[in-house]
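step=encode ok
step=design start
structure_in=
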């Protein structure tokens, strides 16, 4: 995640300075060894340090002189590293080699000891990304096939749908080689999202082809007519999703750009596949469709429209009552900006609990201040040591001595603390890596350093990175949501040639988005911010299609009959198609949520699954009520509406 912060972020600049100035880096892993003497702990320290990719192993001997009895030393300092015969080591794992290095550490420490930290989280996610994507796909494809078999009248048609979209998903995954690298979040989410969002295009085309086969003898002519008829609906559907994903690429936090670019490619490839490859495939094998024809497996949905319209007033009142609280609540949700906590069912999750039970929470933070003024540095360190939540501070002035000039000592004694230009101060804190307490402490430490050195200092560490991430993504949220709404509004304006219809459609889907995103606030649970940001865009872009499908049909029928009759007929005819689309997207979401141990992917899945269901309910209950209630306004604000007039 750090790689996706913008170049001008404070922690990104700090990382570059420290890489240039110091060999060592910020500790990103902790290991706890049970039941060892001080000598055995020192042996473990040497063994950890000898693993390729492990650097800067810090233990008790770096904080105090262990040649003197430890009973004489400050007990708080001792217990930060050695408590009840348990030793806790902090060290850094080389970026890019997290999987290999953590595996080697596990081999060394065995099952009974514990490891935790940012590097281990990264290794765990990288291992799981591919296997979990395959697992999700293995669960998902049978469910999608069942939904498609129930919704079509041929056993082979679902294979055509999945082949057309499957080909575009594979090509999209292949073209990632030209990007050089992609995030494992993108790897986990993009293929499945592309499948779910663009399957509609294939359904639109083949349903249309099936209709024309009954009217036209020549399959080729039927396909030409089907392509002509379904192109506007497919193009409108693809455009809303396309522009929604384009909005993600404008994020300053570049994970949005990574995922957005992948999904934009995916939508374009799916559109081309459905309009070029699927017609060719269908015309080659249409006889298979005829041979595998079966009676509809589900009863036809008649008079649903009648029942829905009886609920129009309660639907309107209920949604309008929920709207303001949902909008306010979704803006007050507690967010997680990092990867979130590992589930306790995993080794990584249970190890975190073991270490925290023994030693409490621990987060490392580093300050880089200008080298030279030892007296000022000593004052700063004393100031930092008094702060709440700071367990201990490691610096030259309190581990060696402010009285000994560093140039008099061997470089091995000073290299951890001094470079050519900077002095490094390491703080061990007892806060979480993020949250109000952690972020409050960061601000406090930064203000303290500023009072001594002005702007001439740097801070870094996992919690500092997350603090920067929070500041970056909160600005992104406003930009992305605005861009999504504006671009989709323009697409709707062009599609319907109306001012009021885009407003009604956006209100319908945005209401579903707000209700969905307000649930964590009312259930008092935190939400992974990246999941929130992506879903607020994806849900709007992907589910507005349901509204387009219903409204397009209603608009045509309204030219031939009164509003109430037109909407009832449209609901009866289109509810099945909308239900198929919503059930596929919802299944995708809930399966991602169930199969992924990555809290970001799981969060996206849960929000997407719930969002698709809410959008379906809103389009079937709230949208028809709005179209009928504002019928006269729609007619006046739509170009060439040509609505039916009762004599």
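sequence_out=
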């Amino acid at each position: 995640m750090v790689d996706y912060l913008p170049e001008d972020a404070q922690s990104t600049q700090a990382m570059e300075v420290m890489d240039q100035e110091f060999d060592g880096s910020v500790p990103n892993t902790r290991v706890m060894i049970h039941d060892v003497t001080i000598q055995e702990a020192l042996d473990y320290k040497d063994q950890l340090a000898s693993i390729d990719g492990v650097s800067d192993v810090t233990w008790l001997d770096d904080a105090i002189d262990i040649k003197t009895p430890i009973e004489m030393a400050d007990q708080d300092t001792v217990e930060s590293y050695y408590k009840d015969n348990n030793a806790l080591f902090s060290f850094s794992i080389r970026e890019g080699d997290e999987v290999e290095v953590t595996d080697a550490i596990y081999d060394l420490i065995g099952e009974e000891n514990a490891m935790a930290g940012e590097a281990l989280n990264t290794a765990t996610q990288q291992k799981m990304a591919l296997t979990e994507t395959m697992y999700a796909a293995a669960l998902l494809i049978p469910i999608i096939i069942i939904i498609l078999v129930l919704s079509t009248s041929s056993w082979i048609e679902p294979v055509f749908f999945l082949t057309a979209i499957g080909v575009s998903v594979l090509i999209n995954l292949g073209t990632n080689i030209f990007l050089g690298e992609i995030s494992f979040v993108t790897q986990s989410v993009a293929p499945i999202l592309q499948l779910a969002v663009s399957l509609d295009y294939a359904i639109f085309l083949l349903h249309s082809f099936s209709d024309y086969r009954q009217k036209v003898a020549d399959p080729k002519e039927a396909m030409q007519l089907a392509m002509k008829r379904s192109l506007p609906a497919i193009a409108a559907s693809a455009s809303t999703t396309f522009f929604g994903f384009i909005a993600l690429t404008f994020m300053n936090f570049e994970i949005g750009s990574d995922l957005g670019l992948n999904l934009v490619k995916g939508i374009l490839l799916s559109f081309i596949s459905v309009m070029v490859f699927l017609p060719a495939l269908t015309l080659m094998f249409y006889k298979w469709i005829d041979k595998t024809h079966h009676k509809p497996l589900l009863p036809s949905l008649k008079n649903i429209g009648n029942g829905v319209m009886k609920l129009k007033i309660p639907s309107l009142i209920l949604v309008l009552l929920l709207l303001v609280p949902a909008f306010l609540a979704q803006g007050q949700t507690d967010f997680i900006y990092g990867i979130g906590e590992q589930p306790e069912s995993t080794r990584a999750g249970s190890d975190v609990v073991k270490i925290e039970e023994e030693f409490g929470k621990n987060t490392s933070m580093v300050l880089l201040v200008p080298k030279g003024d030892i007296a000022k540095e000593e004052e700063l360190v004393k100031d930092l040591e008094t702060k709440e939540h700071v367990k201990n501070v490691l610096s030259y002035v309190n581990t060696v001595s402010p009285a000994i000039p560093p140039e008099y000592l061997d470089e091995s004694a000073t290299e951890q603390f001094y470079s050519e230009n900077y002095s490094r101060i390491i703080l061990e804190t007892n806060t979480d890596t993020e949250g109000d307490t952690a972020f409050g402490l960061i601000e406090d430490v930064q203000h303290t350093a500023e009072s001594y050195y002005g702007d001439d200092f740097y801070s870094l560490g996992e919690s500092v990175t997350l603090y920067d991430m929070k500041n970056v993504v909160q600005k992104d949220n406003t930009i992305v949501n605005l861009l999504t709404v504006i671009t989709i509004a323009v697409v709707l304006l062009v599609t319907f040639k109306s001012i009021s219809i885009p407003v009604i459609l956006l209100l319908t889907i945005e209401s579903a988005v707000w209700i969905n995103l307000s649930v964590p606030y009312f259930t008092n649970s935190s939400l992974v911010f990246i999941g929130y940001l992506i879903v607020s865009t994806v849900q709007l872009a992907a589910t507005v299609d349901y509204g387009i499908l219903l409204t397009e049909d209603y608009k045509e029928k309204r030219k031939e009959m009164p509003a109430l009759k037109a909407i009832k007929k449209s609901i009866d005819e289109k509810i099945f198609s909308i239900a198929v689309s919503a059930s596929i997207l919802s299944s995708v979401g809930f399966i991602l949520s169930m199969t992924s141990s990555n809290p970001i992917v799981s969060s996206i899945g849960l929000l997407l699954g719930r969002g698709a269901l809410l959008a379906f309910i809103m389009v079937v209950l709230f949208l028809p009520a709005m179209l009928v209630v504002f019928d006269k306004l729609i007619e006046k604000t739509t170009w060439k509406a040509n609505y039916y007039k009762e004599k």
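step=design ok
step=annotate ok -> The longest strand covers residues 86-93.
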